[in-house]
Amino acid sequence: VHPLILRQLRKAGIDPAVADPALARLLAAVSDAYLAADDDRRQLEHSLKLASEELYERNRRLQQELEQRAVLSEKLVHTTQHRAETERQYRAVFELSPVGVLAVDLATGCVLHVNDAMVGATGHSREQLLSLAFADLVAAAPGERATLATPEATRFGPQERRFRRRDGSTFDALVSGIRTTDELGRTVGWAIVQDISERKAFERQLAEAARRDRLTGLSTRTVFIERLDDAIARVRTGVQSVFAVFYLDFDRFKFVNDTLGHDAGDELLRQIATRLAALVAPDGGGEPEARSSIVSRFGGDEFLVLANGLAAPEDAVGFAERIVAALAPAYSIRGREVHSTASIGIVTSAECLTSAEEVVRKADVAMYEAKHLGRGRALLFNHAMHARLTRRVAIEHGLRRGLRAGEFRLVYQPIVDLTTGTVVSAEALLRWTHPTLGEIEPSEFVPLAEDAGLIVDLGRWLQREACAQLVRWRTEDPLHAPATVSVNLSRVEVALGAPMLAQVRDALAATGLPAGALQLEVTERGIVRDRDAARALLLDLRALGVRVAMDDFGTGDSSLGLLRHFPFDAIKIDRSFVEDLTASPDGLAVLHASVNLIENLGMTSIVEGVEQLSQVAVLQSLGCRCAQGLYFGGAVPPGEFLDAVRRRAAAAFQKTA
Ligand code: C2E
Ligand code: CA
Ligand code: CA
Known about the structure:
Layout: H1 3-11, H2 21-96, E1 100-105, E2 111-114, H3 116-122, H4 126-131, H5 134-137, E3 155-164, E4 170-181, E5 187-195, H6 197-209, H7 221-236, E6 243-250, H8 253-260, H9 262-280, H10 288-291, E7 294-297, E8 302-308, H11 315-327, E9 331-333, E10 336-338, E11 342-348, H12 356-373, E12 378-380, H13 383-404, E13 408-417, E14 423-434, E15 438-440, H14 442-451, H15 455-476, E16 484-489, H16 491-496, H17 498-511, E17 518-523, H18 524-528, H19 531-544, E18 547-553, H20 559-565, E19 570-573, H21 575-583, H22 585-600, E20 604-607, H23 613-621, E21 626-628, H24 638-656
Parallel strand pairs: 11-12, 14-16, 16-17, 17-18, 18-19, 19-20, 20-21
Antiparallel strand pairs: 1-2, 1-5, 3-4, 4-5, 6-8, 6-11, 7-8, 9-10, 13-14, 13-21, 14-15
Helix pairs in contact: 8-9, 9-11, 15-17, 17-19, 21-22
The structure holds ligand C2E and calcium ion (2 copies).
The site of ligand C2E has 21 residues, from strand 14, helix 14 and strand 18.
């Protein structure tokens, strides 16, 4: 029976256990109904609970969403404000920019926006500008497109464009920009238009200045080359028949500069210019061809004349005579009479028609040879000069390649002690076999390598090579290997200073040769240019332990003074002294004095160019210490050097035995 019914029965004093069967059945039925109701209620309660939980959850989520929306909308408000602000700023930049800004519809070319600067620069009103197309604003050269940019380009420029003002005048501008798409879907090019007319004007001034020599008012090299190119083209096409080029170098100009001062030198140049200018343009008349003749100053005291309108190549000589005659009278410089003649190299159009540069180079070569023949001469470029020039150019070009290709090698010439007869040193001498020109003398290629600055690279290689060679000889035959290897230093290398010291140190370190086994030979010419720097380098080299010798002693002017002031270990007396021994009676006296001086200064005397036994005897009697020359042996490849030394030693032994 359901507990609730049981409780009610008890209250009514009825005992369900003794109830009659009918009542008991009723009670049971009621009880069942009660129990079913209980179940229903419990189920209902459960469902309610679930539903309320779900509702709660949904509510929570809604709440969250609301909050997020609030944040978002707040942000949105912010962004919109910010965007408006940025746009305002951009607009201000656009409007206030001192540089012109222009927006163009790239499809139609129509101008969409302009700023004040653009308005100011063009002289158009804003309304006018906005009614124009980009093509109306620029002055395009024929064939040049008058569009701002292609619609494909995301960026364009910087490019120089010429803009047209309202009044028809133009200005140069640098245009660059970007492509955007606007709210109407149009492809818009935004361009910055920077007025560069001032810069262009300055550039034009500069270009003009480059065309006129400030000192003399003559045209410059640039103009000359242009005119010469024109003349070459005219001859080539048969419009003109003959021209001649004269390369002038004044002989005493340096003297005027040094004695009368630079202002006087400038004055002289101006007067020369006036005389030359009168030659090519006599009162501005003459044939049109002759009128394109030109005089220009190539810098310093070098002038070039291009004479057009000659009848025949032979007339060039006559023209040169007129130049010489015009320059012959004395100049009056500050009340003084000054004479200045020119050496003149001539090239005519009969010679070559390749390039202006080549014509000038040939005229230069002819001038150079004219100068060597004596002052005030004119010389026509000829084929021998041409051959010399071609060879020189070939050598210059071949040097760098030759060094890389290993075309250089060293040969060694013995230096012999005259008292003992032993080989004390080996002088390394450069040899070069050019692939087409064959064997080339160092006296020919070394000066060219010096001019080209390549002697330093050559030197770096050969110093290492010579040091390594002595190390190899020492290993091979310590008894007969010479005590030192002598290496020639060019004047260019001496002028290097500190880097040269480092290079020598590197060569020694890399090969392991002791510093005392290296002797460097420098010529007098190599040290007179910058005595203090040269002296410092030689002192540094000696501090390193390297021996230093003066080469070609007696070929310069101030040899004796140099000996006292420079820290030499040895002096190599030039072979001209030995030649003089037999040629003149004074020769012996000069050699004697030199040897004495050298030995008294504590230096070793080495005589070069000894070719005969008779010379050896004289040198020994003069107290000369060492000698070098064909008599003792010429330069040989490194593989033959020790054999030569051993043969000498054996011969000396036989003589004494
Ligand atoms: P240099 O330094 O005075 O070299 C001596 C030159 O005289 C060498 O000519 C040598 O072969 C030559 N000679 C030696 N004994 C006699 C002789 O008894 N009679 C005659 N007539 N000549 C003799 P080379 O090798 O042609 O060199 C000429 C010059 O080239 C050298 O004169 C030197 O100034 C330069 N040179 C050679 N090799 C080098 C180098 O490696 N570096 C530098 N910077 N210059 C070098
Ligand atoms: Ca030498
Ligand atoms: Ca020498």
